[in-house]
Amino acid sequence: MLRKIAVTFxxxxxxxxxxxxxxxSNAAEQLASEGNSGYQEHPNLMVLHADVPTYPxxxxxxxxxxxxxxxxxxxxxxxxxxxxxxxxxxxxNAATESIKSWRFNHYVNARFTTRFVYRLTRRGxxxxxxxxxxxxxxxxxxxxxxxxxxx
Length: 151
Fold this sequence. Notes:
Blueprint: H1 2-17, H2 19-33, H3 57-61, E1 66-75, E2 78-86, H4 89-100, E3 110-121, E4 131-135, E5 139-145
């Protein structure tokens, strides 16, 4: 619960500074330049709430990294539909659950493509709690230590 409150607070602080608008534009330009035409430009496409995404423990256990791409449909500020276009199933399920927690302004109706990048590192190379980088709603990067040797 405390983690959700902290993320909501950080997102609101970012929104107030206008930083989120420029990051969203940069991520949108990057995705568009890579051929992802599913993003529809929307001046108020800013996430007001998002649960902290996590790396699925089973995927960490069996060393599954990968990228998940999904087309997200938002109606009246709530995620109505998530269609995964690529990515390993276990990571796609985690990304979908995270996306379903997103909330936008109540008047937002949009369809866009988002990307979740899951990376594994060797134990000791990263904070034990992992690292999450958000450029919501277009890019989420989740880095975590592998649970099993071999990476």
